[in-house]
Amino acid sequence: MPKLGMEPLRRKALVDATLKTIGDHGSLEVTMQEIARCAGVSPALAFHYFGSKDQLLIATMRSLLAQLNGEIVPMLRGAESPRARISALICASFGDDQFAATTVAAWLAFYVAAQRSDETRRLLKIYARRLHSNLVHALKALCDGQKAEHVAEGTAALIDGLYIRRALDAAHADVESAKALVEDYVTTQLAAISSKA
Amino acid sequence: MPKLGMEPLRRKALVDATLKTIGDHGSLEVTMQEIARCAGVSPALAFHYFGSKDQLLIATMRSLLAQLNGEIVPMLRGAESPRARISALICASFGDDQFAATTVAAWLAFYVAAQRSDETRRLLKIYARRLHSNLVHALKALCDGQKAEHVAEGTAALIDGLYIRRALDAAHADVESAKALVEDYVTTQLAAISSKA
Amino acid sequence: MPKLGMEPLRRKALVDATLKTIGDHGSLEVTMQEIARCAGVSPALAFHYFGSKDQLLIATMRSLLAQLNGEIVPMLRGAESPRARISALICASFGDDQFAATTVAAWLAFYVAAQRSDETRRLLKIYARRLHSNLVHALKALCDGQKAEHVAEGTAALIDGLYIRRALDAAHADVESAKALVEDYVTTQLAAISSKA
Amino acid sequence: MPKLGMEPLRRKALVDATLKTIGDHGSLEVTMQEIARCAGVSPALAFHYFGSKDQLLIATMRSLLAQLNGEIVPMLRGAESPRARISALICASFGDDQFAATTVAAWLAFYVAAQRSDETRRLLKIYARRLHSNLVHALKALCDGQKAEHVAEGTAALIDGLYIRRALDAAHADVESAKALVEDYVTTQLAAISSKA
DNA sequence: CATGAATGAGTTTTCATTCAT
DNA sequence: TATGAATGAAAACTCATTCAT
Q1: Straight-line distance from CA B17 to C1' E6, in Å?
Q2: What distance in Å separates the CA atoms of residue D172 and residue D25, rounded to the nearest whole number?
Q3: Which residues of B touch A173 (CB under 8 A)?
Q4: CATH code where residue A120 lies
Q5: For A182-191, how does the pLDDT look when each residue is reduced to its tens digit (9 = 90+)?
């Protein structure tokens, strides 16, 4: 019983199914069959809408990024000081959805895929640049430009590193201690600068 | 013209070929054919010596770990103070071999594999535990135990994070600035503690 | 030009092709390729519908059993006396289809497979039990229970034995003399009992 | 440490290992590797002595036949009457070695192989002919030629049938009841003839 | 005599993808 | 719009067999 206007619904269902399948599986080695079954449609439909598995993966990657962005933007809006903006970025990175074991696994899988897929790499770089520029922008209000770059770099690396450790052992690092570790890094770095001045 | 005692040579050649193939490829989705060609033997020989692709991958993983260990141990031996030991650990982590783009790609690939392979996960956890305990041991000479745990955690996450960023963009972070970032983290954290006291 | 509702047709075609291929070959060492070619489809389709070679073999075994049953049931229905029922069972066992050289070869092949495949063994045991119980049921009207068991046992063994000899040398035993041998066994055994009484 | 006169020993060891492997496995789908391991030598040695797997299987088949013959001959020698000779043949067929589950499995496997291997078929036919002629020879002293042929045929089929049933369910038929069944067949048939006369 | 080394040919199986309906 | 039908291509793995030593 085909309906009109199904396209956006189907696309979303397929992308969500892909993300879930990848997350559950812990890798991109998922079959179109599995994805389609998870979405409750036939594999052929996935091809109908996305043309190829690669395209579906790219779309999924985009959705993951958009999701993260969707958490960051409102949080940034709510932050009233530069320091609070930094905390907002950290907080969004470790949001319940983002730091869920399956989401982390998906991120990791896409990092690996980026080794070969130009588009995936491009998208991941966009994410990295965006986080970096958000951090630098806020930090520049708190220290000089060179130091801001440095702390931004460290903060971003720390976030990624905590993600990867989470992937290895879901139980190991809870959200709160991860957040605290990064917050402490920022605070300590900023303190060191002002004390030096 | 087959000779005797080829087994260890072939095993090594195959493991090295696997590491190289994975590194070049940027993922574990390499075929036995590719690996065998890279090692200059037939795929059948790889099965003859390792039994299965999984076993070969595990052996390769082990070799990667042993290689890292081989760089850490002598550096630790040469370090004369606790602080120097920490630097030695950082230095080894960013050694030329370890931080080579292909090696980093291989590490990342294994992190993804760890999602499904118990043995791979076990081996990666061993690496993580070893680094952690080495760091904590050195840090305990410089600050109290709780703080040592904290800094060790941050240092390890920072190292992993810089690895992952390296994987994304080989050019982005050069070895020296990566080392400097981690060194600075340790130094600043330790300084913050003593100033507080 | 694919149509709908092909599944049952393909399944049957594949099972029939399997039976034929096994019969021609004289063993279960047939490849999916051969079977698929015989059915006029690609090997992949066989996997699509049956999942694995083993499953296809099991389905074929089941079909063979069903075929035999399909010959026995109407013959039993047409038999009006206990003795006639026994003759019907013998007659069905040596029906043209069942005693065809290729069918016999297939039966034999499955007997060998039963050594390792639990499901195959289970199915063969069902066949054996069914024949036995049919025979015993009819014989009990002609002699006492213990003797009925004995004659049923002998009759079944004789049938199987003639099958195996047929497999060895298709020309050796024609259908009629095989039937006559078993009929004579039953007749003589029953006569011996009544004369003794 | 190569020794002189090893050839016959090695050949025997390999043939015995083949028989054991086939018996344990329940089919001819055994690898040269398995056979060699069972014999405690390298696979290459099996090729050295037998040239090919087929040749080794043929030799094994021959050994199986010789073994059976080795049980029949002395038993026949010890039999003092025609009827006793028949019992001796039956007895030898159900000797402990012959009726062992693994031996039965091997026989069955060879019957299947006979479908494709001319030499195997030839050897099995020799066995069949020898049993038949032994039976007929003894029976002719007890009844007329035509009847002797008939009873010999039935006896042989019964023996084979009991073998095949044994293969299906080792527990089902014990040696003694198998022997008794065949003995009873012969006795009843002979009795029927004399009573008719 | 005996074997470790090595492989080519083949087999099962998987999977992205196409297409007619 | 949606799918069942179908497959080509490739991958993991097996195994009989050869050969130099």
Answers
A1: 18
A2: 20
A3: 153
A4: 1.10.357.10
A5: 999 999 999 9
